[in-house]
Amino acid sequence: MKRRQFIFLGSLGSVGLAALWQHFYFQTSQNSLSNRTANAASTPEVNIPPGEPLQRFVSVADTGTGGQGQYAVAKVMTQYYRQNLFPLAILAGDNIYKDGNIEKIKQVFEQPYQPLLQQGVPFHACLGNHDIRTDNGEPQVRYPGFNMQGRYYTFSRSPIQYFALDTNHNADWQAQLSWLDEKLSRSAAPWKVVFGHHQIYSSGRYGTNQNLASKLTPLFRHYGVQLYINGHDHDYERTQSINGTTYLTCGAGAGVRPVERSDWTAYSASRLSFAAFDVYADQMVIKGIGTDGTVFDQGLISRAA
Fold first, then answer.
1. Cystine design at 100: which of 19, 23, 115, 131 (Cβ 3.0–4.6 Å)?
2. Average per-residue pLDDT for the chain
3. Cα 220 to chain center, whole Å?
4. Domain for residue 88, yes or no?
5. 3 state DSSP class of 56
6. Which long-range contacts (CB under 8 A, 24 or more apart) does 169-175 make?
7. Neighbouring C-alpha atoms within 13 Å toward the C-beta of 232
8. What's the CA gap between 146 and 279, in Å, rounded?
9. Minimal CA–CA distance to 234: which of 88, 67, 62, 89?
10. Could you tell me the residue range of the domain that residue 151 belongs to?
């Protein structure tokens, strides 16, 4: 930080600092896209399997601001639901900004997603780094609307088994990795989807997380995990299959930051959005959907990738 920037920040009161933080951290204008943060190519065409999918779900992350960006994404999620009923939503962390205070739950969760909650759509959450700032996230673990069975847990919706992780720095990694190994080894589900807040492969602000990669990717490869979903980077990015696993960042649920491309990037965009998934017997269709309702990305995952 330059000296004059430091002096300027020091002159602000707490209210001014909060407003400045909100402006920069949750920049929601889609006009902020630069040539390097969006793909030049148009949305790829994919051969969608015939018939109705066996399962649908959506995912979104870094949502809990209560701001215009969150409401815009929540609105288009509701519109999508009316045309494509989905029985569950994945909430991949940073559910309550900026300190995980459960007293804000109405503003940042119950009101934005009220139409979906009224239709009985369950949200399954995991903890982000902002969520653990208050009581290490325990109030959120206990909150019924997040359907968390612990700091890490698993549940099934045929033909998928989902595995929620606590990817925070203070997680009990020894116990969690033993648990994940055991649960994956016993899973007979054709599709295995793991989600956590922090990125593993990313072209966004935080980049590839070598620490998480060393912990998790050997298990993903050994047990055939087809998809990992995360937030933390405030963008949308879908990777190509990396040793059989596709990595999907959907952290643009309330604000955006720039994202670039890596050799393994299939599509990336700095765009307010959520991800939708249509699951068939042998293929899964991933769609990136913007606040204007358009599908700006579409890709396929093979079950036996």
1. 131
2. 89
3. 18
4. yes
5. strand
6. 169/129, 170/132, 170/136, 173/215
7. 25
8. 23
9. 62
10. 51-302
Q: Give the pairing type, strands 236-239 and 295-302.
A: unpaired
Between 1 and 295, whose confidence is greater? 295
Above 70 in pLDDT, residue 200? yes
**Three-state secondary structure of 105-120:** HHHHHHCCCHHHHHCC
* d(C-alpha 252, C-alpha 275), whole Å: 10
| Euclidean distance between CA atoms 148 and 123, whole angstroms | 9
Over 50: is that where the pLDDT of 182 sits? Answer: yes
CA dihedral 276, 293, 148, 231 (to 10 degrees): 80
CATH number of the structural domain spanning residue 174 = 3.60.21.10
DSSP lists the bridge partners of residue 298 as 287
Is 29 inside any structural domain? no
Residue 255 inside a domain? The answer is: yes
Largest CA distance in the chain: 62
Express each pLDDT in 11-51 by its tens digit: 444 434 444 444 444 443 333 333 233 343 445 568 888 89
What total of structural domains would you count in the chain? 1
Q: Is the model's pTM score more than 0.85?
A: yes
Share of the chain above pLDDT 90, in %: 83
220-246 residue pLDDT tens: 999 999 999 999 999 999 999 999 999
The percentage of the chain sitting over the pLDDT mark of 70, rounded to a whole number, equals: 85
What pLDDT does residue 26 have? 43
Radius of gyration of the chain (CA): 19
Helix H or strand E segment including 186: helix 173-186
- Burial code (b: 16+ CB inside 10 Å, e: under 16) for 121-136 equals bebbbbbbbbbbebeb
User: Does 279 map to a domain?
Assistant: yes
> What's the confidence (pLDDT) of residue 44?
58
123-125 and 89-91 strand pairing: parallel
